[in-house]
Amino acid sequence: MLNLNVFKSPFTRTSIFMALRPVRKEKDDTMTVKETLNDGLKRGYEIKITAAELDAKVLEKLKEAQPEVEMKGFRKGKVPMAMMKKQFGPKVLGEAMQESVDGAMNTHLETSGDRPAMQPEMKMANDEWKEGDDVVVNVSYEALPVVPEVDFTNIKLEKLVVKADDASVQEALTSLAETAKNFDDRKKGAKAKDGDQVIFDFLGKVDGEPFEGGAAEGHALELGSGQFIPGFEEGLIGVKAGEEKNVEVTFPADYNAEHLAGKVAVFECKILNVKEPKTSEIDDEMAKQFGAEDLAGLKGQITSKLEEEYSGAARAVTKRALLDELDKMVSFELPPSLVEAEAGQIAHQLWHEDNPEVEGHDHPEVETTDEHTKLADRRVKLGLLLAEIGQKAEIQVSDAEFTQAVMNQARQYGDQARQFFEFVQKNPQMQQQIRAPLFEDKVVDHIVEAASMKEKEVNKDELQKAVEALEEE
Questions:
Q1: Is residue 16 part of a domain?
Q2: Is residue 307 located within the same domain as residue 270?
Q3: Domain that holds residue 415
Q4: Is residue 109 part of a domain?
Q5: I need a surface site. Which of 3, 226, 364, 452 has the fewest CB within 10 A?
Q6: Last residue of a domain, which of 279, 314, 338?
Q7: HEC profile of the chain
Q8: How many domains does the chain have?
Q9: Could you tell me if 377 and 265 lie in one domain?
């Protein structure tokens, strides 16, 4: 009958940063808490609530509710306490027991300064407890360790600086020109090839009858683009302007229009023109296709974009170097439960990367290895360290920063962006997963500001090698 889940939030990797929130101050002097285990970070306690104390709490709750209680045969507020206790006693008893244990636990954490690494395990000492017995609850958990101070001024870092050179800008322009290709008329009588654009009228029929959405005039289709259902574009290879051709295809079995799914259709096509692709000239006209006033303006946009990308990549290299330094500088005992949970998540994630065809969790149990545990040790240590640094520096993620991050992620979902936004609003765990990397980046920036930083100019190839080295580790 007793729900003793005092700490509701399950552990996730990102929750390391949230584990350092201060506990709620709530004292109850009628409870007794006795230490039963103190070994490293392991803690054990016995919480005892006497039957008399519990009964007094139940009576107090019933008296508070009595003025509002109505019962057949009695006026509002005049129900006898004996009948109140008989009618509502069991429910109130459970609430009183839960509140008493929660209060005792919170008071203990406030007094001791302990911060549980994960949800404490709580168990009734007497499985056959009945009303009138003392309540004895055994509590065990691993405490978060004391994290040592770090002198940031002793950290020496290197910031890679890359300028966007003319060759890089020209390479980007050439790539844009290829994506902004135009089409010119082929010679009269020329046959359409893969990659050509065909301008045509068409009328689709199933069982000899036209169907809704199966007709168009003057439609432009790039052959090989995959715009139409499988087999259609291939059926137009070799057509010529002025020609008429029937193309027979079968709609996929999972086609989104159920009345067409799996059906054979014949498209009556009248070819109006056949055009060949032509790469755009790199000039002012091409620049306007990308929203720039002229070619000079487009070059400026490309330069800014490239240097922004270089800066982001360089920051990732600096951040890794910083984390490596912190990992070497700091050592403290880690809660085994956090390391074990993190190693399990790492193993699970890597297994799915190696088996992308498997979705969900319907697969054999994934065993952790020494490598997983080694990486988990590093992540947990750095997570706790950054959390401590951030808390002491009073670093917070503002509502505006959080909202902007959610909006950035929502854009990836296109038409479903609104649903994603609403999902985040209703999901505290998802909110935490979004806030955690924002918090981490702000803490990293805080440390970098105090560290010794030296700039080093490199070219983009050298930066690329540095980024690839990160991915190999």
A1: no
A2: no
A3: 294-355+367-472
A4: yes
A5: 364
A6: 279
A7: CCCCCCCCCCCCHHHHCCCCCCCCCCCCCCCEEEEEEEECCEEEEEEEECHHHHHHHHHHHHHHHHHHCCECCECCCCCCHHHHHHHHHHHHHHHHHHHHHHHHHHHHHHHHCCCECCCCEEEECCCCCCCCCCEEEEEEEEECCCCCCCCHHHCEEEEEECCCCHHHHHHHHHHHHHHCCEEEECCCCCCCCCCCEEEEEEEEEECCEEEEEEEEEEEEEECCCCCCCCCHHHHCCCCCCCCEEEEEEECCCCCCCCCCCCCEEEEEEEEEEEEEEECCCCCHHHHHHCCCCCHHHHHHHHHHHHHHHHHHHHHHHHHHHHHHHHHHHCCCCCCHHHHHHHHHHHHHHHHHHHCCCCCCCCCCCCCCCHHHHHHHHHHHHHHHHHHHHHHHCCCCCCHHHHHHHHHHHHHHHHHHHHHHHHHHHHCHHHHHHHHHHHHHHHHHHHHHHHCEEEEEECCHHHHHHHHHHHHHC
A8: 3
A9: no
Task: Grade residue 23 by pLDDT with cuts at 50, 70 and 90.
Answer: very low
The lowest-confidence range among 37-41, 212-216, 241-245, 254-258 is: 254-258
pLDDT at residue 20 in the model: 41
Residue 338 reports pLDDT greater than 80: yes
- In a domain, residue 167? The reply is no
Inside any domain, residue 390: yes
pLDDT single digits (tens) 275-306: 998 878 899 988 998 889 999 999 999 999 99
pTM: 0.69
Q: Report the pLDDT value the prediction gives residue 31, as an integer from 0 to 100.
A: 67
Shared domain check, 133 and 92? yes
Same domain? For 448 and 321 the reply is yes
